[in-house]
Design goal:
heterotetramer; A alpha+beta; B mainly alpha; C mainly alpha; D mainly alpha; C: mainly alpha; Four Helix Bundle (Hemerythrin (Met), subunit A); about 70% helix; elongated; D: Cytochrome C Oxidase, Chain A; about 65% helix; globular; binds heme-A; binds dinuclear copper ion; binds copper (II) ion
């Protein structure tokens, strides 16, 4: 009699590949692991302590040895000890953990932004250069990368265990997370928030490349139209430039350099213009009236898809002068018809003129 | 909720306190006060007070509610336990509202 | 076997003392029984506070987010009807309090008439509420597929909005009035549901009172019902300014 | 090894003829009973039924996860299975488990009362529970639900086309059952204590239930209204949680967790009460630092309301809120640590024996410590990012809920079985069952910590092949665990007829419940006791020895 061969095979495989921690492939990973190790050690000490106390007392004071119990009321000193020491340790964990938390969710200003749209049941990544990919994400090492996430339907969660990061994609709102990959390789991408039938199929690969390979990948998969260019077309075809044309008499404010600036709203409160604000300004203009302007901007709810919004946002972000807008203004009719280059490996994403106008 | 054990009645199996009966006169006064309060709320809503409008409205409502609780519902004449019970309810209510709102308010502070 | 808890005698019920028939077997005294009942009632009211608490939280958040929509939505409600209803409810609270007093002082007529008054006022409240709901229904202000933002994007087409001097609203904000009406119906609906339950109980109580009930000192039910009724009143005291009186000056 | 069990002479002893079980006969006498003890039995039967339904579903989950592909069933079915497993286990088993059975049975007796304050409401709460259970079963049979037990919006409101409404209403109804139980307990503890029974003479079991009841009364209604809003959103389309209408789906989470975090303490506190009683009895000692243990229950209850957003750390709540909620989570963990150490020190200089309830209690201490400490991993915001929504969480909550509360429940059932039925369970086999459960449990759930660390997401019907080995361990463990749970089921039923006659106080315990006959009379006490002795007063008990307890019936 022996172990069944199947089970044996398992065990061997397991012994060979045994790991309790996924690969560390980002800068933050080792920092998270340090805290995890610390907490595990503290927990082990605590557990062993409890275990030792229980076992030792059970042996020392079992009825056979100690037939009569000695009644003890309690001990303030002891009780204070085991209140304060765990509390202290927990507080250390809290501070340490919070530092990490803020680090993970505060992208550095120079980070490269990639947009990720989640929908039942796939991830769609949009690189600034216009490369789309589905259920995979190609990134270079050594460069901080910020993800701006949004969901088109329900909650999803973008999880990369090897990087120790994870962020929920929420319907109707941008969220961000960032990381800097350190080791080339292919890692798991999971959707960890339960999102319906094919939740477990909403997985993919994070492909970490050296900068050279990344460049190669970019070139081979470009569709020829960057996000900003696509945004420009949308800007024209949705007639945004009818109002935002940068002319002194225009009805809408100039959008050049608006990204990153601080605006004052009609209500008097200041806002920082970030991606989320730009998106809101397009969808819910009357909730965010800029001081000095009439609330005349129509809402584009239902007219632009999330991808389209991303393009618009990316276009406005990169708008440093109104020159382009005015150019667009003169050639409005022409632009949307601009021929597409054959998309590279964009996984068959449809490529109409300006992508992102919501289908009726 | 958590504090009431400090002032418990060791014989609470036998509370013999005679019940205080609140009479029509008190009820009448409170009723009048409630009517006045209602009139005040309506009036106040037509005044321009900026951010104070909701504050005043809520304040008057709170006063009215307190009157109802204290007199119509006899809490003024009830045992400490009852008062604490009402307090506990109010407290938890405020936790629910306050701590939820704290998330919403502080979301606007940063880029998150 | 002196002072501790060991069952020694077979005297199961200990019927040595004479107690009123309504004293339940597991209580020592009538005071204990009433105190217990009213404490239980108060705890139940705490659950009610928390029940409405969820709605109030939602209300406060959305009111801050979509203030203009809430203002415009609020202008759709009739202050006259709302105030009148407040009056009805406060009065009914008063008559209910009088009812409790009558029961405490064993005034049969007083109790019956107070309950009748309370009943009529309560039904009146619901009647007016129905009128208000019906109007919302006709104007397609019920949230859901049929919801229409016509009154808000184009206030001149709408009598109430015109009267309140509303300005046309952007479509995006106008759509948020649906959130306002969702909360309006959720909150007043829950309140109305409590009223309906209250009225049902009131009918039963009235029936008993007419036939001479509650005159034997066993008035726990009347008192606890009073607590319930006052609580429903308090909820309305908050709902009225929050829903009807948002920024009437404008 | 010696034992403290002292049974009456089996040749002459008999179960008292008149007791709450025999007082009246016929089905109706049960269905219309106001007796808290009978209602406890009714609850016991119904929650056991639901536990086995939940357990069978767990078995199906584990079978599916034996292989990486979703080959046993479609992903859709798997989703329905774990949702039902969660809903049944939480709302129909664990929340009512200890309070509605042991709590119902014991609280009035422990405080020297003849019944709970509101016997009819107590019965009503059982019927509500049954209605909720029936609706859940109906939802399950007519197509199931696939939202997970957390009903995340907008998934549950707009994207799932399964029986969300029925299940939501089922939980709503079952929730009221829990509210009424809690309300009854609070009123009873305040109003029905026997003369001389002061707050600090209350057994810790009562303190724990009192604290849990506060949570039930104040927390559950928020869940109720949240579910109502979800149902309204599905039926008529109001827009409170719907992002396309301007609602905030995160608000749903706030409201849901405002209940569901306190609910985890509803689930654990009564179990902690059981452990206090058991450890005291089998070490023949007053609980070390009685006051601290009592107050820590209340502290858990109060602080339990302040930490709910730790379930939402990555869901887009403000980072400042994360800071606050994470800090408060650390604070709420401390009272649990206090309890663990106080129990450990109760053993110090005790006179310890190792009957089954005590074995389960030891199991509780170890497993709850692991579960609790891993909870701290999750409460630490930086590590929660990596661990959340993985099997680490699954392991965490099974350690606290199964390793903690279920162990406590079994401990309590064994401990009070003689009181409830008048007969002893067979000791040897039950000790075996306790050990089997402990081993099976660790086999099942410890690998899940590793899986979580490695990043395996929860609620996955299929997973990457590299996780298979640990999953096989887990499934294998679950089958051992299943045996461990079936055993008590069998021998406890067996003991109803063949168990040794227990007598009034087989454990020589000090609680009031042990001073009356087993099974007790319908009215518990023939005369209301006057309490003079202290709680856990073993010396008093010694002095009582000469007046050996007799029975009435
Ligand atoms: C009985 C149920 C129960 C209990 C008691 C607990 C107890 C705790 N839980 Fe748990 N929890 C759940 C049930 C429970 N939990 C469930 C069901 C979920 C998942 C829900 C879902 O998403 O489906 C969950 C999820 C959950 C999360 C959310 C994770 C996420 O979604 O990202 C968090 C985060 O903070 C958390 C934390 C805690 C903490 C800090 C405690 C603390 O109360 C624990 C305190 C105990 C101890 C700390 C142990 C004793 C301490 C010692 C002996 C001291 C040791 C000595 C030294 C340190 C020296 N839990
Ligand atoms: C009280 C609560 C409780 C209890 C006791 C259990 C008990 C068990 N649970 Fe459960 N579990 C939850 C509460 C609980 N669980 C919750 C809340 C979730 C989250 C759901 C969600 O994500 O929404 C969850 C999710 C969950 C998962 C994760 C699913 C996923 O995310 O994909 C798993 C996987 O292993 C699991 C396993 C088990 C096992 C093996 C047991 C074992 O302990 C059970 C052992 C018992 C038995 C095995 C019964 C013995 C009797 C029989 C087996 C009868 C035989 C009859 C037939 C087979 C017909 N549970
Ligand atoms: Cu998307 Cu899970
Ligand atoms: Cu929690």
């Amino acid at each position: 009699m022996g172990l069944s061969p199947v089970l044996w095979q398992f065990l061997v495989k397991w012994m060979v590949n045994f790991a309790i921690i996924p690969p560390e492939a980002s800068k933050i990973a080792s920092q998270v692991d340090a805290l995890l190790v610390f907490m595990t050690l503290v927990s082990l000490v605590g557990l062993v302590l409890v275990g030792l106390l229980v076992t030792a007392f059970s042996i020392l004071y079992r009825r056979d040895r100690n037939p009569v119990a000695t009644q003890i009321e309690g001990s303030t000193l002891l009780e204070a000890t085991w209140t304060i020491i765990p509390l202290g340790l927990f507080l250390v964990m809290f501070v340490w953990g919070s530092v990490l938390y803020f680090r993970i969710y505060t992208p550095p200003p120079n980070a490269m932004n990639i947009y990720v749209v989640g929908k039942q049941w796939m991830w769609k990544a949009e690189h600034p250069g216009g490369q789309h990919e589905i259920n995979s994400l190609h990134i270079p090492i050594g460069k901080p990368i910020q993800l701006t996430l949004i969901s088109q339907d329900v909650f999803h969660s973008f999880s990369i265990p090897a990087f120790r990061v994870k962020r929920e994609a929420i319907p109707g709102r941008y969220t961000t997370v960032w990381f800097e990959a350190t080791t080339p390789g292919t890692y798991h991408l999971f959707c960890t928030q339960y999102c319906g039938t094919q939740h477990s199929g909403m997985i993919g690969d994070i492909v970490v490349l050296t900068p050279e390979n990344y460049k190669k990948w970019l070139d081979s998969s470009t569709s020829g139209v960057s996000l900003a260019q696509n945004g420009e077309r949308l800007f024209a075809s949705l007639s945004c430039n009818a109002c935002h044309n940068g002319q002194p008499d225009s009805r809408g404010p100039s959008l050049a350099n608006v990204y990153g600036s601080r605006l004052t709203l009609a209500s008097g409160s200041p806002v920082l213009v970030d991606e989320a604000y730009l998106r809101q300004a397009i969808l819910n203009p009357s909730a965010h009236i800029t001081q000095g302007y009439a609330p005349i901007m129509p809402t584009y709810q239902g007219q632009v898809s999330e991808e389209g919004l991303i393009s618009l946002v990316e276009y406005i972000k990169n708008l440093s002068s109104n020159y382009r807008v005015q150019q667009t203004l003169n050639t409005t009719e022409l632009l949307p018809e601009q021929p597409d280059k054959v998309p590279g490996k964009t996984n068959g994403a449809p490529s109409a003129g300006a992508q992102g106008v919501a289908k009726p | 909720m958590s504090e009431e054990f400090q002032n418990h009645d060791p014989n609470s199996g036998h509370t013999e306190t005679e019940q205080h009966i609140v009479g029509p006169a008190t009820y009448g006064i409170i009723f009048a006060a409630l009517l006045v309060g209602t009139a005040l709320t309506i009036g106040a809503s037509y005044l321009e007070m900026g951010a104070w409008n909701p504050v005043v409205a809520i304040l008057i409502a709170c006063i009215k509610a307190t009157l109802v609780v204290l007199f119509f519902m006899h809490i003024k004449y009830s045992s400490k336990l009852m008062k604490l019970t009402v307090g506990a309810g109010l407290f938890t209510f405020l936790i629910l509202v306050g701590m939820s709102l704290s998330d919403y308010i502080s979301r606007a502070w940063g880029q998150w | 076997m002196d002072s501790h808890a060991v069952a020694t005698t077979a005297d199961a019920h200990g019927h040595e003392h004479d107690h009123p028939a309504y004293l339940r077997h597991h209580f020592v005294s009538y005071e204990q029984q009433t105190e217990t009942a009213s404490f239980g009632m108060w705890l139940f009211l705490l659950t009610e506070i928390m029940f409405f608490g969820g709605l109030f939280t939602a209300y406060l958040i959305y009111r801050n987010w979509y203030y203009p929509a809430f203002v415009a939505g609020s202008h759709q409600l009739s202050i006259t009807l709302g105030s009148f209803n407040t009056l009805l409810l406060i009065t009914s609270s008063f008559t209910m309090a009088m009812g409790v007093w009558s029961a405490e002082t064993k005034r049969h007529k007083g109790l019956v008439w107070s309950l009748i008054a309370t009943l009529i006022l309560g039904i009146g409240f619901l009647g007016i509420k129905t009128v208000e709901y019906k109007e919302k229904w006709e104007k397609h202000h019920i949230p859901g597929d049929t919801f229409s933002v016509q009154s808000f994007v184009n206030p001149s087409s709408d009598a109430e909005a015109k009267a309140a001097g509303d300005k046309p609203m952007g479509l995006d904000m106008a759509r948020k009035t649906e959130v306002y009406f969702s909360l309006y119906f959720a909150m007043t609906g829950m309140h109305a549901l409590h009223m309906i339950i209250g009225i049902a109980l009131l009918c039963g109580m009235l029936f008993k009172a007419v036939r001479g009930g509650y005159m034997d000192g066993n008035i726990a039910f009347v008192e606890n019902f009073g607590l319930y009724w006052h609580f429903v009143d308090i909820v309305w005291i908050f709902l009225f300014p929050l829903l009807y009186l948002i920024s009437r000056h404008q | 090894m010696s034992t403290i069990v002292s049974l009456p002479d089996q040749s002459t002893a008999r179960v008292p003829k008149r007791n709450y079980l025999t007082n009246e006969n016929g089905l109706l006498s049960w269905l219309l009973t106001g007796d808290h003890k009978r209602i406890a039995i009714l609850y016991l039967i119904s929650i056991t039924f639901f536990f086995f339904i939940g357990g069978a579903l767990a078995g199906v989950i584990r079978l599916e996860l034996l292989t990486p592909q979703s080959d046993l069933m479609a992903a859709d079915t798997y989703n329905k299975v774990f949702t039902m497993h969660g809903v049944v286990m939480i709302f129909l088993f664990l929340v009512p488990s200890v309070p509605a059975t042991l709590g119902n049975f014991l609280i009035p007796i422990m405080i020297g009362a003849k019944d709970l304050a509101f016997p009819k409401i107590n019965l009503l709460s059982w019927y509500l529970y049954l209605a909720g259970g029936a609706m859940t079963l109906a939802a399950m049979i007519t197509g199931g639900v696939d939202t997970g037990w957390t009903f995340t919006t907008p998934m549950s409101t707009h994207f799932s086309n399964t029986n969300v409404i029925t299940t939501g209403l089922a939980i709503f109804v079952a929730g009221f059952s829990s509210i009424f139980t809690g309300l009854n307990f609070i009123v009873t503890v305040h109003r029905m204590r026997a003369p001389g029974m002061t707050w600090f003479k209350l057994p810790l079991f009562v303190w724990a239930h009192y604290a849990a009841s506060i949570l039930m009364v104040l927390g559950t209604p928020v869940l109720a209204i949240t579910l109502v809003l979800v149902v309204l959103e599905r039926t008529i389309g109001i827009g409170v949680f719907d992002p396309t209408k301007g609602g905030d789906p995160i608000l749903f989470q706030h409201l849901f967790w405002f209940y569901s975090h306190p609910a985890v303490y509803i689930m654990i506190l009564p179990g902690m009460g059981v452990i206090s009683e058991v450890i005291s009895t089998f070490s023949r000692k007053r609980v070390f630092g009685y006051t601290a243990v009592a107050f820590s229950s209340v502290a858990i209850a109060v602080f339990g309301f302040f930490v709910w957003a730790h379930h939402m750390f990555i869901m887009g709540v403000s980072n400042y809120a994360v800071l606050v909620f994470s800090l408060l989570t650390m604070l709420v963990a401390v009272p649990s640590a206090i309890k663990i150490f106080n129990w450990a020190f109760t053993l110090y200089k005790g006179s310890i024996t190792f009957e089954t309830p005590m074995l389960y209690a030891f199991g509780f201490m170890g497993l709850f410590t692991i579960g609790g400490l891993t909870g701290v991993f999750l409460g630490t915001s930086g590590t929660d990012i990596h661990l959340t929504e993985t099997y680490f969480i699954v392991a965490h909550f099974h350690f606290v809920m199964v390793g903690g509360m279920l162990m406590a429940f079994l401990s309590g059932i064994h401990f009070w079985w003689p009181k409830m039925t008048g007969r002893m369970y067979p000791e040897k086999i039950s000790q075996l069952a306790a050990v089997v459960t402990f081993i099976g449990f660790n086999f099942t759930f410890f690998p899940q910590f590793l899986l979580g660390m490695l990043g395996m997401p929860r609620r996955y019907a299929a997973y990457p092949a590299e996780f298979q080995v640990l999953n096989v361990f887990s499934t294998a463990g679950a089958s051992i665990l299943g045996v461990g749970y079936l055993l008590p089921m069998i021998y406890l039923v067996w003991s109803l007829k063949y168990g040794a006659i227990a007598g009034a106080n087989p454990w020589q315990a000090t609680g009031l419940e042990w001073q009356i006959q087993s099974p007790p009379l319908t009215e518990n006490f023939t005369t209301i006791p006057v309490v003079t002795q202290d709680v856990y007063d073993y010396e008093w008990l010694e002095r009582q020895k000469e007046h050996e307890v007799t029975h009435v019936g």
